[in-house]
Amino acid sequence: MDVKKIKILVVDDFATMRKVIRNLLKQSGFENVAEAEDGAIALQTLKSSKVDFIISDWNMPNMTGIELLKAVRADNELGKLPFLMVTAESLKANVVEAVKAGVSDYIVKPFTHEVLGEKIDKIMQTIK
Amino acid sequence: MSYEKVLNVIDGMASKFLFLEGRDIDIPTAGYFLNQLDLIIKDAEELKMDPLCSVAKGLSRLLEKSILGEIKDTGSMFTTLEKGITTMQDVHKSFVKSGGYEGGVESFMGSIYQLTGVPPMAESTQSKHVPREEPAKEPHQEVSAEPEKGPDKGIEGQDESLLRDFIVEGLEYINEIEVNILNLEQDPENKEYVNTIFRPFHSIKGVASFLNLEKIRDLAHNLENLLDKVRNNELSVTPQVIDIILDGADALKAMIGQVQDRLEGKTSAALDIDVPALEKRVKNIQEGKHEQPEPKKIGTILVEDGLISEDVLEEALEVAKISNEQRIGEVLIAEGKVTPKQVSQALRKQTSQVVDTTSTRVDTRKLDDLIDMVGELVITQSMIRQNPIVQSNTDRKFFRDISQLSSITSELQRTSTSLRMIPIKQTFQRMSRLVRDLSKSAGKSVNVVTVGEDTEIDKNMVEEIYNPLVHLIRNAVDHGIEVAEERIKAGKKETGTIQLKAYHKGGNVMIEISDDGKGLHKEKILNKAIANGVIDSASGLSDQDIFRLILLPGLSTAEKVTDVSGRGVGMDVVKQAVDKLRGKIEINSHYGTGTTFVTSFPLTMAIIDGMIVRVGREKYIVPTTAIRRLLRPDKELYNSVIGRGEIINVMGNLLPLVRLHDLFDIEPDSRNPWEATVVVVDGENRAKCLLVDEIIGQEEVVIKGLSESLRKVKGVSGGAILGDGNIGLILDPEGLFELSEM
Q1: Residue A118 belongs to what domain range?
Q2: What interface predicted TM-score (ipTM) does this complex get?
Q3: Pick from A57, A104, A112: CB nearest B28
Q4: Residue A19 in domain
Q5: What are the chain A neighbours of B158 within 8 Å (beta carbons)?
Q6: Are residue B48 and residue B196 in the same domain, yes or no?
Q7: SS3 at position A124
Q8: Would you say residue A2 lies in a domain?
Q9: Any chain B CB within 8 A of the CB of A127?
Q10: How confident is the model at residue B543 (pLDDT cuts 50, 70, 90)?
Q11: pTM of the model
């Protein structure tokens, strides 16, 4: 499978942030991007369509990133889906919780498209 | 719990470790190890295997640090992990054999300490906080590897649309913050509200950092940290916290505005918000340095009490500064400006500001319920007293007990109403701030003096009276106080003064707003009023009446009145708002020396003074403040005009007649106005005549809201239990007018 063709779901409540990430992904060659504005909506999207990779913010209304992660990991079908958590510098201490919950990796805001691309490539390699 | 189970976990870790591909622990593996270590720690604690426990905790710490990218020497990290797992196996083996471990784990713990920089003793708490205080280097390097883009440069190219989105969304988010912060203020314990405020700051920060808007990012970051502390219960929601969040939101809004200006190629106005000072305040609050507990200075208290003037205070302060030994109070006493007693009183006042811990927070809803129930109790109690059986009873003891009961209930009512009363201080402080802001932007120098800050007012009233009062203050600053040159020319002090004064009078709270500005010009108001056809002539009008003209809609459009009287931007709006609260407004003014607006509001919105009217067998309550006149018209004054309906001539005014019995479908005693009673009531900007059978009397009633499904019913604003135990509906004049026009 061509890594650049994978479908990435970007989950963030801030529309501008989704656009920022979408732009960065585009710069790294990932064009197949879907968006969701919180964990609950993301979960619906995941159930109704095929997604290969999740990039999610931590802090969102309705269902937070960590809740989404736990829900994904608890799901039989979605269980192994690569999950990249976006976090802020100030909230890095939370990362440990996400790691224990089975996150694939995390990335600290702000990041460049190079870092983002690397992280995605690295995660995709390990699951192959 | 058994040794065996622990061994399984440790062995599981060992085999996972063996099959690792490189010498690199990736995130999912670290997660797996951490979860296993948690299991081991839990079991080891229960089995009292202390050495095992410390090793496992040490490894957890090591892995956490490694996840956060804070361990540079990944090679020795890897070997330490390996050593840790084998040590755990050894410790376990030894425990199974002899119930203890002789080898000692100190040297191993030492190597962990070296790698993590966290001493073994300071375990769980440290590992959570340290990362925040010393941010990891790695992500920063990543950022700096990217060519530095100035904020101006970031506006070019594809980022422009992002910036536009950010501006729109950012401003939306700030609105959200403003709405939710008010909820939080009312319910400070509700973590959900904290979250709804935290999130927008967080999001703004995130995007701002991508767009290289550093100032916005830093401020949002600081505020976010503050809120994070609130979320983690490290900080409680005090008014200071609320204030600073609001100030922060204001600042962010202004900064986003600047970005917008720049984007549109406009030169943005300089920010008049001191962001570094704001950030410092945020930090101070976070560190638990409260802003407020800096009590008022003794000198300030003395000035406020009117015992000394500011000039005297300044002089005395100079003296105190030079002499170094003497305190301000001593200097003032020595100078004979104040008596020792006055100083000691001021000192007492000062301490009472600081020590005010004798209060408890109670949910307002509970309070409202309580007050409501007490209201019911009072009415029930009076119903019992008026019951014929009770009245005819001649037992003296019973009579005494009944009057005892009624005095207790009325005391209870008084106390419970006072529960909801809060000092007007906060409102005044907000207003003082407003005056400062307004005067600065108007380029005037204005001083605010407040009197009677401790006057209490119903909590529910506070928000309601704020808007009309703000309007009055705005007018006082904009149009009342003159600019400095004009003031000097008129022989006044350069700095204008606005006085806010509150006191109780009767069942009302009075709030006066006075300025020492140019005052109202009677003739000009009169001329304009006559020109606009508001009045016919000035005859019979008192000064008061003339000033009140500015409250009329015809006279209060900005451009007409600003040059006439220097007043009146939307004064009719103020009047309406005050009316709605069943308040009154009076104006006193002397041309050249200033204007005073005296507003009076009922102490509480829970009680209304009403006129009880009867239509057929039904009783209704008409708010007394809405009633203009009661009359029984002569037959000649009644007319039915085709196309305009029924009309009654009231003192030369033709007012439409509204038949209550038609609206509510009741059989009245009489259908002819000249045989019934007509109540002339005011709606919004108009008056009509209500036709009722009889006026029963005047009564103060406790207002009961209507249930959700009835709230939309027009013409009725609420209900109340009357003194005789019957229920009466409270009429809403404007609603009735609308009903009658349908």
Answers
A1: 7-127
A2: 0.88
A3: A104
A4: yes
A5: 23
A6: no
A7: helix
A8: no
A9: no
A10: confident
A11: 0.44
B222 and B253 in contact (C-beta within 8 Å)?
Answer: no
Q: How far is B240 from chain A (nearest CA, A)?
A: 23
The distance of A101 to chain B (nearest Cα, Å) reads: 7
User: What pLDDT was estimated at residue B164?
Assistant: 83
Q: How many domains does chain A have?
A: 1
Tokens of B490: 């008129």
B583: which residues sit within 8 A by CB, 6+ positions away? Answer: B465, B508, B599, B600, B601, B602
3-state secondary structure of B148: coil
Q: Are residues B442 and B586 in the same domain?
A: yes
Quick check: B131 pLDDT over 70? no
- In tens, the pLDDT along B441-497 reads 778 888 888 898 888 888 778 878 888 888 888 888 888 888 888 888 888 888 889
B198-236 burial by CB neighbour count: b if 16+ within 10 A, else e? bbbbbbbbbbbbbbbbebbbbbbbbbbbbbbbbeeeebe
B339, B405: one domain: no
The A residues from 67 to 86 touching B (CB cutoff 8 Å) are none
Number of domains in chain B: 6
**Which has the closest alpha carbon to B337: B298, B371, B375, B363?**
B298
| Chain B contact for A27 (CB, 8 A cutoff) | no
Measured between beta carbons, the chain A residues lying within 8 angstroms of B207 are 14, 16-17, 20
- Is residue A76 a part of any domain in this protein? yes
Q: Give residue-wise pLDDT tens across range B34-50.
A: 999 998 888 888 888 88
Tell me whether residues A111 and B166 touch, CB distance under 8 A: no
pLDDT attached to residue B351: 62
Residue B440 neighbours by CB distance under 10 Å: 13
Same structural domain, B570 and B461? yes
CATH code of A29's domain: 3.40.50.2300
Judgement on whether residues B327 and B311 belong to the same structural domain of the protein: yes
| Catalytically annotated residues of B | 202, 224, 475
B408 and B443 fall within a common domain: no
Exposure string of B601-617, with b = 16+ CB inside 10 Å and e = fewer, is bbbbebbbebbbbbbee
Do B688 and B720 lie in one domain? The reply is yes
What is the CATH number for B91? 1.20.120
Q: Which domain holds residue B489?
A: 422-602
B166 close contact with A: CB closer than 8 A: yes
Q: Mean pLDDT throughout B576-594?
A: 84
Residue B203 to residue A59, Cβ atoms within 8 A: yes
Q: Residues B195-213: what's their mean pLDDT? A: 83
Does residue B643 lie within any of the structural domains? yes
Q: Is the pLDDT of residue B256 over 80?
A: yes
Chain A residues with CB inside 8 Å of B166's CB?
16
Any idea how long chain B is?
A: 742
Q: How far from B399 is each of B109, B379, B402, B406, CA to CA, in Å? A: 84, 18, 5, 11
Interface subset of B 213-232, CB within 8 angstroms of A: 221, 224-225, 228
How big is chain A by its Cα radius of gyration, in Å?
Answer: 13
**C-alpha to C-alpha distance for B26 and B38, rounded to whole angstroms:** 18
- Has residue B555 got a pLDDT over 70? no
CA dihedral B159, B163, B165, B169 (to 10 degrees): 150
Tens of pLDDT, residues A8-21: 999 998 888 888 89
Could you say which residues from 105 to 164 on chain B have a Cβ atom under 8 Å away from some Cβ of chain A? Answer: 128-129, 131-132, 135-136, 139, 142-143, 145-146, 158, 162
The pLDDT tens digits for B678-713 are: 999 987 667 899 999 999 888 777 777 777 777 778
Rg (CA), chain B: 36
Q: Name the more confident of A81 and B375.
A: A81
Verify whether the Cβ–Cβ distance B136 to A20 is below 8 Å. no
Smallest Cβ distance to B128: which of A14, A93, A110?
Answer: A93
Q: Among B542, B570, B602, which residue terminates a domain?
A: B602
Residues B11 and B108 in one domain: yes
